[in-house]
Design brief:
By secondary structure, the chain is of the alpha+beta class. The chain has a single domain, classed as Creatine Amidinohydrolase (Alpha-Beta Complex), CATH 3.90.230. About 30% of the residues lie in helices and about 25% in strands. Strands 1, 2, 3, 4 and 12 form a five-stranded mixed beta sheet that branches. It has a three-stranded antiparallel beta sheet with strand order 7-10-11, with helices on one face. It has a two-stranded antiparallel ribbon with strand order 5-6.
């Protein structure tokens, strides 16, 4: 079942509001559960008069190296990263995006990894179009990471369909030979993870067309936008 891209964009309004709430409200001394509360309030503000819900990953500090997880009592400290992978259902349609926040100046290696993640996502944008076999999308994305020294550090898929559900097949992973069709909405979500240290991921939603994809989430990706700080 395909969904209207305009309905996906309406759900994405809540993602935008949630990321802005984190940018302005998250600081050292807060917990992952505090971040969850900021997101919950933001989603409620946008979707107040409609049925809605959200799910996601709320991982900070060394937990980001493990890719995913629910919010815990982990307390943010200076230098931490925070992965917020957020899926919102507004009405009957889901969104699914991810951004990584930096509580202080990223290290040179983290900046290199972030640039590699964006280049990897851009490669996916160039690869996905109607008629593509899903399993063919991830390999060129990994090649981009490998060329920059991060090829072994993305263990998950490169993206998937989204719409009536937050995760749908075909997904951009080995062995998934479904065909991507015009009118599908998909994600591209590359990441780099250093176990026990840090991890990062960036994800957007795209409308698949005969000639490529159209980005449905007009929201910044530049690393400088996601460097936040402060303490309480």
């Amino acid at each position: 079942m395909k969904v209207s891209p305009d309905d996906v964009k309406r759900s994405l309004e809540a993602n935008r509001e949630a990321y802005e709430a984190i940018r302005s409200g998250l600081c050292t001394g807060m917990t992952e559960r505090d971040a969850f509360a900021l997101v919950a309030a933001a989603v409620d503000r946008v979707c107040v008069d409609e049925p809605h819900e959200f799910i996601g990953d709320f991982v900070g500090g060394v937990r980001t190296g493990s890719i995913e997880g629910p919010p815990t009592d982990y307390v943010f400290k200076a230098g931490d990263l925070f992965i917020l992978d957020l899926s919102v259902r507004r009405g009957e349609v889901w969104s699914d995006t991810c951004r990584t926040f930096f509580l202080g100046e990223p290290t040179p290696r983290q900046r290199e990894a972030y640039a590699a993640v964006l280049a990897c996502q851009d490669e996916g944008v160039q690869t996905v179009r109607a008629g593509v076999v899903a399993s063919s999308v991830r390999p060129p994305m990994i090649d981009v990471l490998a060329a920059r020294g991060f090829g072994d550090l993305m263990p998950h898929h490169g993206g998937h369909l989204v719409g009536p559900e937050p995760y749908m097949k075909p997904a951009f992973e080995d062995g998934c030979d479904g065909i991507v069709e015009a009118g599908d909405v998909c994600t591209l979500e590359p990441g780099v993870y250093v176990s026990g240290e840090w991890g990062m991921r960036v994800e957007n939603d795209y409308l698949v067309t005969a000639d490529g994809v159209e980005n449905l989430f007009d929201y910044p990706r530049d690393i400088e936008y996601f460097i936040i700080g402060g303490s309480r």
